[in-house]
Amino acid sequence: MAYLTLKNINKIYPNGYHAVHNFNLEIEKGEFIVFVGSSGCGKSTTLRMIAGLEDISSGDFLIDGKRANELGPRQREVAMVFQSYALYPQMSVYDNLAFSLMLQGVDEDVIEKKVLATAKILGLTDYLDRMPRALSGGQRQRVAVGRAIIRKVGIFLMDEPLSNLDAKQRVTMRSEITQIHRVTGATTIYVTHDQTEAMTMADRIVVMKEGYIQPVGTPRELYFSPANVFVAGFIGEPPMNFIRGTVRDGKLSFGSNTIDLKLLGRTETSSYEGKELIFGFRPEHAVLGSVEDAYQFSCRVELTEMLGDNTNVYVASGEDNAILKVDPHDTPEMDSDTVFSVPFSKVYLFDGETEEVI
Questions:
Q1: What is the arrangement of strands in the sheet containing 187-192, beginning at the earlier edge strand?
Q2: pLDDT above 80 for 84
Q3: H helix intervals, the chain
Q4: What does the alpha-carbon distance between residue 177 and residue 254 come to, in Å, rounded to a whole number?
Q5: How many degrees, rounded to 5, is the angle at CA 230 between CA 314 and CA 303?
Q6: If I label 161, which of 50, 62, 147, 193 is the partner at 20 to 30 A Cα–Cα?
Q7: pLDDT attached to residue 177
Q8: What SS3 state is found at 36?
Q9: 75 exposed, middle or buried (CB, 10 Å; 0-12, 13-18, 19+)?
Q10: Which structural domains are found in the chain, ordered by start?
Q11: How large is the average pLDDT for residues 74-85?
């Protein structure tokens, strides 16, 4: 049996707003699950229902097989890390870490041992006497994480904990949180709008859209085998390119471009006749120039972004636009005409109406 189970969870506010629709998910003990999606998709609301900070309108939330809908946060034995750090400004780092244990009446010697052990894991040993205002953003976030893990609870909940950090701090904290998870072995649910965090940290990713859960999978599954256009476009940076076209006589036509569906492995094409399909390919799968077993596009270079290890090239082919991710040494000139190819094996096809993969 799964450690955490969410069955047909709904959240409807008094004003009638339906924030979360029929959310179903099973989470195994020790998993690192990431909820990802754009702002307002319901990911933080779902996390707060798991924490006991929001009432569940309907459905069942189970912890180790037992219904927990009516249990308060403390009874659920969860620890939560917020975006805002939520440190006590008048307390030192030591006292911030020790505070929850003090409230529980834990012996001072035990508190000291736990604080020192936690500080060592987080690299805070030299900062225990400092006040929060004397710390950097990354150090404050470590203290916030430390307050959660010192309680030795079974469930960690993290709501966009890195969003206030700069780019370098975010990279560092990503690896530190992942390491902490390995050390503690606690079941962790992490909310973010940053798909890079989701891809690098998660055992499984839960993509949400407008309150609905999308297909759940490992980072590799969602990246290489996306179930629909939304997931394909959300996972990956830059996002997947999509070009809409219509099937006529077994060929997909989009603008002046036409491709035989048989080249894409669709031997039976009559069922697609007259339908709108979406031709998708990832920026890194495009190759500048002409190659074998690939579809070729003539295009014009509109913009280039040199990023060091690669260059993003923005191109226009007729009325369609795309982003290519190429070797920086092969960066074409702005406003030049060029050709790029997409290997047939790297093409994704989606139904134009349902946007599901086909």
A1: 78-81, 155-159, 187-192, 32-36, 204-209, 212-217
A2: no
A3: 43-51, 73-76, 93-103, 108-122, 137-149, 167-184, 195-201, 219-224, 229-234
A4: 45
A5: 5
A6: 62
A7: 87
A8: strand
A9: exposed
A10: 4-234 (3.40.50.300), 241-351 (2.40.50.140)
A11: 84
Q: What is the mean pLDDT of the chain?
A: 92
Q: What are phi and psi of 127, to 5 degrees?
A: -120, 10
Distance, CA of 309 to CA of 108 (rounded, Å)? 52
Strand, coil or helix: what is 18? strand
CA distance 244 to 126: 57
Q: What are phi and psi of 260, to 5 degrees?
A: -70, 125
Report the SS3 class of residue 251: strand
61: its two tokens:
């939330």
Whether residue 238 has a cis bond before it, omega within 30° of 0: yes
pTM to 2 decimal places: 0.88
Q: What is the DSSP letter of 103?
A: H
Q: Which residues pair with 73 in a beta bridge?
A: none
Lowest-confidence region among 57-66, 82-91, 246-255: 82-91
Residue-wise pLDDT for 102-115, tens only, equals 988 889 999 999 99
The alpha carbon torsion through 224, 225, 229, 233 (nearest 10 deg) reads -20
AA identity, residue 250? G
CA–CA dist 231, 228 (Å, integer): 6
- C-alpha dist (Å) from residue 39 to 54, 211, 219: 18, 11, 20
Q: What is the pLDDT of residues 16-71, one digit of tens each?
A: 999 999 999 999 999 999 999 998 999 999 999 999 999 999 999 999 999 999 99
Segment 215-237 mean pLDDT: 94
* Integer angstrom CA distances of residue 154 from 58, 75, 167, 195, 315: 25, 12, 30, 25, 49
Q: Read out DSSP for 299-357?
A: EEEEEEEE-SS-EEEEEEETTEEEEEEE-GGGPPPTT-EEEEEEEGGG-EEEETTT-BB
Tokens standing for residue 127? 């900062």
Closest alpha carbon to 23 in 3, 48, 42: 42
Tell me which amino acid residue 129 is: D
Percentage of the chain beyond pLDDT 90 is: 67
